[in-house]
Specification:
By secondary structure, the protein is α+β, with helices and mostly antiparallel strands. It has one domain: Alpha-Beta Plaits, CATH 3.30.70. The protein is 26% helix and 35% strand. It is built from 5 helices and 8 strands. Strands 1-3-2-8-5-7-6-4 form an 8-stranded antiparallel β-barrel. β6 and β7 form a beta hairpin. The relative contact order is 0.22.
Length: 206
């Protein structure tokens, strides 16, 4: 399975209308393939929307997207408000949930770490024995790595009720032996980014 994470930078003030147009088109679009979720950023780069689409493979993705265009059900008519578009194809870690539908809270944290070439397998190895205890503190929505798009990125998504809940749960997770995973001396962490996003009312994850 693959996961396409699409991030669009929109014109200031356009997000409410864009979200409305996406929501209106979802019933027809989701007849063609499963939808992971939709969010708008609140902290980090503003005026962004994030939407996630799971597919069996790239062939299913290409077929589904072509069918959506052919039948006219997608994409929503938002082009006049789009400033930038980014797409990443991700593979889930063996322990990761697959953007499963659910109601977890009002804030989702998207964290992206960029590592040196060849480091991702060691990251997965370090996370594996600790993730069960960490996810018991706050829900892990997804953890995986890029295959198409910016490479050597490790993307993980966490859900919280609100910012205060995040602070409390992260403090709890920092107890010795729980989190964060140790980093092997051969692993090079080049860059860390995060953003906080709010789900749409019609998002399968909210």
């Amino acid at each position: 399975m693959i996961f396409e994470m699409r991030t669009y930078l929109m014109k200031p003030g356009s997000i409410p209308k864009v979200e409305e147009l996406f929501g209106a088109g979802m019933p027809a679009r989701t007849k063609l393939s499963r939808f992971g979720g939709f969010w708008r950023t609140e902290v980090g780069t503003l005026n962004q929307i994030i939407h996630v689409w799971p597919y069996k493979d790239l062939n299913e993705r290409d077929h589904t997207r072509a069918e959506a265009v052919r039948t006219g059900v997608w994409p929503p008519k938002i082009a006049d408000n789009v400033l930038e578009m980014e797409s990443k194809i991700l593979h889930a870690a063996p322990f990761s949930p697959h953007f499963e539908p659910g109601e977890h809270g009002g804030i989702y944290e998207f964290r992206t770490y960029t590592y040196g070439p060849g480091n991702i397998p060691k990251v997965i190895e370090a996370w594996t024995p600790l993730i069960k205890a960490r996810a018991a503190i706050s829900p892990l929505v997804f953890a995986g790595f890029t295959d198409i798009g910016a490479l050597n990125q490790w993307v993980h998504v966490w859900a919280y009720k609100n910012m205060a809940d995040r602070e409390a749960r992260r403090a709890q997770a920092m107890k010795p032996g729980v989190w964060p995973p140790p980093r092997h001396e051969s692993v090079t962490l080049l860059k860390q980014e995060n953003k906080f996003a709010v789900p749409a009312s019609w998002s399968p994850l909210r």
